[in-house]
Amino acid sequence: MELVTITDIEAAAERVRGVAVRTPLVLQTWDPRGTLWLKPESLQPIGAFKVRGAFNAIATLDDDRRARGVIAYSSGNHAQAVAYAAQRFGVPAVIVVPDIAPRIKVEATRSYGAEVIEVPIGDHEAKAHELAAERGLTLVAPFDDAAIIAGQGTAGLEIAEDLPDVEVVLVPVSGGGLAAGVGTAIKARCPRARVIGVEPALAADTAEGLRLGRRVDWPMADRARTIADGLRAQPSELTFAHLRKVVDDMVTVTEDEIRAAMRTLATKARLVAEPSGAVTTAAYLNHAAELPEGRTVAIVSGGNADPALFAEVLA
Amino acid sequence: MELVTITDIEAAAERVRGVAVRTPLVLQTWDPRGTLWLKPESLQPIGAFKVRGAFNAIATLDDDRRARGVIAYSSGNHAQAVAYAAQRFGVPAVIVVPDIAPRIKVEATRSYGAEVIEVPIGDHEAKAHELAAERGLTLVAPFDDAAIIAGQGTAGLEIAEDLPDVEVVLVPVSGGGLAAGVGTAIKARCPRARVIGVEPALAADTAEGLRLGRRVDWPMADRARTIADGLRAQPSELTFAHLRKVVDDMVTVTEDEIRAAMRTLATKARLVAEPSGAVTTAAYLNHAAELPEGRTVAIVSGGNADPALFAEVLA
């Protein structure tokens, strides 16, 4: 299987320049250890790193295919990222969402000019494939795609540029696109740094899978228990092959740790993080004994927190 | 009266490099006008732009004076900024705070190694002067100081570098240090841009003062009505002279507009803004008719919002 290379990620960085925000690394001066830098991907357009991969994937299509338009299935940040990236290119986007998706996310996706099609939960993947064939649209996968992995990897390239002597990079793991891309960039540019994946204990399929050396399948009903709704997916063959190569270790965090980290990020770092975006900070603050010491970057992957949940963790 | 120049601000930028975060300009893609960039100074160490001026002021002291230590009176962000900057230089800092200051702010100031002295409200300025004389400490003023103005101006320099064709810069006005410095930088580098100061209507002494062409004094009891606790000060002769020269117009916002802007910043920009940091966004969203059109930067000056207030505006 062909893996994404640092050259692919460098090419992606050229493409996403001016579209993805070059998010700063922010040293956290309140941290007594003094070794925590946050990378707030929550500041991206649509509020998550996903815009990097989506834009790169659409950018690498040939002109004819791109002009016909793109399609994605998602109820989360990938939906908005594809809608936004397609709008930047001025090409049509169709997003298939489960009809239980929060209205606010559906409206946000629509606001970027996408056609949103709501279907019963469970049908949305099949419906997307059907529409893609019918209308000649290109499916933009959420993570199982080399161009997506390379796009997400641009966040890792920026870490290597801004803190070349980084020692630990904490990255959330769900479908594995972000961890695959960031890990590839870090291993190429900062070979001494350790790349640690973070999962909720309630959706720790990758921690188990890497331990066993093969992908494992956790029932969706199990994975759905975590409040980190962005971390309920599982790696594909492609992303898992990357993770085996570039992730040194996995750490899992509890739901209480995630909520506490959201509060810390709000009050100490002044960032709105969604639960998935808070897991890396949760790992740093609660699992020091399991982590290598040293200059640590925690990727805050997204900030699309439900306002009611956010108010609750602050109270 | 000698005013701060762009050369002073450029020199300050060299000094604060690596201490102040080079905050990005973040285009807000949810805004239908598509002309709003935020500059999140809330991401600075201590959560506000104040670290720029405090660090520059301490950096410009001669070595002997600096080594003897610094003193400041403040219950707000300036206290933490001076404590943090002194810690970076490894010199003593004394912060005099009114004994009604929130515990959380006192603890934060102490966490940067400062000696915190609590005195009855109203006595803290006199006590600071007394201690400065007694112990040979240098008083770091919150805004009435050329080095502070030059330091705050580095935020304006970054705006000019990142968006050279900026058309409107919205900046909160309280003591006027930030507006004076940012306005000076913008007028030097982007002479066609308009610099607009923003105040709460409940503490609009500068809007009135600039209209009349002279400083006016609003009773503290009036200014204390606004929830924007960082915007209750009034310009000094020095900052007012800058504001007359570099501020093109003033806009005032209501308390409801400030709260709504805090919510918008949290949900759309994923930023925790304190009320003072939200006034510029409030102006952009609610006072378009009073503002020039075009590419607009709103400075989000700080993020030290009280968690209970923040939870309340989100609910």
TrEMBL record, chains A, B:
Domain Tryptophan synthase beta chain-like PALP: 33-302
SUPFAM superfamilies, alphabetized: Tryptophan synthase beta subunit-like PLP-dependent enzymes
The protein's required cofactors: pyridoxal 5'-phosphate
Database matches in Gene3D superfamilies: 3.40.50.1100
The keyword Methyltransferase belongs to this UniProt entry's keyword annotation: no
Listed CDD domains: Thr-dehyd (cd01562)
Record carries keyword Disulfide bond: no
Keywords assigned by UniProt, alphabetized: Lyase, Pyridoxal phosphate
A Pfam match: PALP
PANTHER family linked: L-THREONINE DEHYDRATASE CATABOLIC TDCB, THREONINE DEHYDRATASE, MITOCHONDRIAL-RELATED
Protein name: Threonine/serine dehydratase
